[in-house]
Specification:
heterodimer; A: 414 residues; alpha/beta; 6-stranded mixed beta sheet; globular; B: 266 residues; TIM Barrel; 11 helices
Chain lengths: 414, 266
Amino acid sequence: MKLKKRVPVIDQGNSLGFWGGKFGGNFVPETLKKPIEDLEILFNKLKKDRKFINERDKYFKNWVGSPTRFIKLENLTNHINGAQIWSKVVSDANGGAHKIYNATVHCLLAKRSGKKIICGDTGAGYAGKMLSMAAKKFGLKCKIFMGAKDIARQQPNVKAMKKNGAQVIPVYSGSQTLVDAVSECMRFWVANCDTTAMCVGSTVGPAVFVRICGWSTSQISRELKVQLIEEFGSIPKKLKLYNCVGGGSSSFGFWNEFMDYDKKQVEFIGVEAGGPAKSKKHAAPLTYGSKIGILHGAAQYVNQNSDGQIEETESISAGLDYPGISPLHCFLKDTKRARYTSASDEEALNAFKLVTKFEDLRPSLEPSHAFFVALKEAKKLSKDTVVVINSCGDAYKDRGILKKRLGKKYVKSN
Amino acid sequence: MLNPISVAFKKAKAENRPALLTYTVAGDSSKKQSLDILKSISKNADILEVGVPHNTPVADGSQIQTSAYRAIKKGIKINDIFRIVKDFKKFDKNKPIILMGYYNMIFQYGDNNFLNKCKTSGVNGLIVVDLPWPENKNFAKKCKKKSIYFIQLLSPTTTSKRLKKIIENSHPMNYFISMLSTTGGKLKVSPREILKNYNRIKKINPKKEIVIGFGITDKTIRKLKSADGLVVGSAICKEITRSLNSRQNPVTNVGKLVRKLKNRIK
């Protein structure tokens, strides 16, 4: 299995949509074949269309607010006393997380295809919140599917979705988390694909959704590349990009523009959710060597039992609480372009405490996983190494959990 | 030897009626009970579809999901399902059985292992919901080698060009999804419209048996009588749930329901 140079990773799948010949694909009911094919044709056309790209960039700039900041975490750097610690503050984006890029592009595509309704899934509530914002912006009706367990633990985002006029549909089946929300959303699309567009909230699902999402979030690395050159004059000789990985949309977007660099120069480190330290359950299929299986239309490494039933996951961060992983990351793992590891719930909470103690930055529980591994490894790295962590979400949505686990003083009132 | 599925269609045609296909989930609400249900309906049903429960089904409505979760909770495994089929075949060896499920379960078992096990336990056909054409080409070929029908799904969204290609490559039986819906949705298009689509498909190759499924109940089945076969699934799963909730015996109740369905299409 080989990664090609000078070809966008999203376009490296074969004619059936498989990366490396085995990850991804379109394992979908017959009813969805046509709508997926229509979307593929539309997306393949528009991603080469200068006018469409200009339109996207206009919204990214004026509405999403690009570029998001690239900042040095001076205090943490001094405290760690190893590599330089930097952060790409993607949570600056309108709505507070990277999910806005994918949501915006899906709404633009829905408009082009003449659909009036858009449905989407959400775990932490960010994908749902951003889709509700974008739908409102572009005049589309919006339906969000969300696990009942996630609705209970991510209330601030639920409120935001409702405020934006979206209908939030609780999903009670299975583990009542993201995996079931995605299933229910796909089922809704099966029954309504003639009038409704679907937005899959991460780089998962049938191949075209993986590609659209990766194409959208790549905005992060486009900005970062410019910012690195502005700051250092060129891409640093030792650059390490740390990102949390659930479905894998923010990490893929954070890395995409650096794909062709040698990994000795630009290393990618993906941090999965290891779950509670004492629990055997986790949401880290790459770290723990899960087998390839099919989930939500795509072949990927996925937590499952020997019969092929998808296993329940457990993580403090709803956004990483997914048993599978993007086919793109499976591909990057097997081609050895990226390295994957995990952090436990407790480690993520410790990292959150450390970051907020030293810096004016409040990463949500998802990027806190990445902060943990980055700060741990940075201690042993040379001072000319540039460590960048994607702070892809803001902790506001986690206030309930933070209050419960760490006490009131870790919750801000804004 | 002719596949028992084809024999069943011939028999129904001779009686001037569509074949009646039932769908129940293996292991719902227990291994034994699901076997007893199959036995109780085999007199009136022509072909038995047996669902392989999966916990992330992307095309099933709430009734079938409920049945599937019930079965999984009771610990049903694929090998138990093969055992159920084998035991059923001891009871009625000529009644065709089709397993219906999602590809990951087969993939984990291994295509070849799975098909060997199908063969030895007496499975006559397979429907794999999330393995569409052309992705299913290789798998369908493997089925053919074992004389197991791989049943292609066709939908109202399937384009004419695609229909032709699928049917050209298909085995003797195909399955037309009546409308844009998950299983068990309310029939949102008229039976006339469904039959119009059905006839369009039938015309491509009249020799292929086409069954219609999704949204068919005892209320709607009569109006679709002119098809080669009709599948009732969610209505049966619903009856199992209703029986369990009201502490009645699902075996006799489902038996009665299937007899009623059969009477409607005679």
